[in-house]
Amino acid sequence: EAQVTQNPRYLITVTGKKLTVTCSQNMNHEYMSWYRQDPGLGLRQIYYSMNVEVTDKGDVPEGYKVSRKEKRNFPLILESPSPNQTSLYFCASTQGLAGHYEQFFGPGTRLTVL
Amino acid sequence: AQSVTQLGSHVSVSEGALVLLRCNYSSSVPPYLFWYVQYPNQGLQLLLKYTTGATLVKGINGFEAEFKKSETSFHLTKPSAHMSDAAEYFCAVVPDTGRRALTFGSGTRLQVQP
Fold it and tell me: B43-58 pLDDT, tens per residue?
């Protein structure tokens, strides 16, 4: 089954404690991205990756890091989480241009930073 | 200017009534338009999309949307609401040609009353 998986699904942590949210896709997609969803703001893109070892900032990259060492994996790293990073995070992947190919979303990771 | 605007953060309808969720987009974006649905505690699922061709687009679960260039609108409708339609709905656009990411509206939460 074609899917995007994320782990963990729920995470409660404290300010400053480094964490990683994993994302994996089994569709051989080149393009992967991370979004955060906040009430009244919809989804905003944090970082994206066009291919292995190619990453770039999205609209709200501050406080986040990513890496793309393998095509299937795209972890999101919070080196020093802060309460304003409490949010619902989605990983997504797609085969190509957004107008022509569907984006597939993971189930989401709900992060709370105390 | 916002690429995409959803009017009404909450919409409530009675079961069996018409569902109308509004989406307006910036005339500067390419004509690729999407509606996604997010059921409670789940990721985003593509409802329908317009990329080219017929301006009335039919999606899953009885939803449809009409691309109206003159009004820069892409409203989502369903003739008869069902309790299972209760969810959050997001309109999304491709912000510029060549992008693989989407820009999302702020979302509309649909409540269906018995």
Answer: 899 999 998 888 899 9
Confidence of residue B98 (pLDDT cuts 50, 70, 90): low
Residue B43 in contact with residue B34, Cβ under 8 Å?
no
Q: How far is B84 from chain A (nearest CA, A)?
A: 19
Reported in sequence order, the residue ranges of chain B that DSSP labels E, i.e. its strands, are 4-7, 10-14, 19-25, 33-38, 44-50, 56-58, 64-68, 73-78, 87-93, 103-104, 108-113
Chain B nearest CA to A46, separation (Å): 11
CA A102 to chain centre: 17
Task: Find tokens 């299972």 and name the residue.
Answer: B84
CA distance linking residue B110 with residue B94, whole number of Å: 24
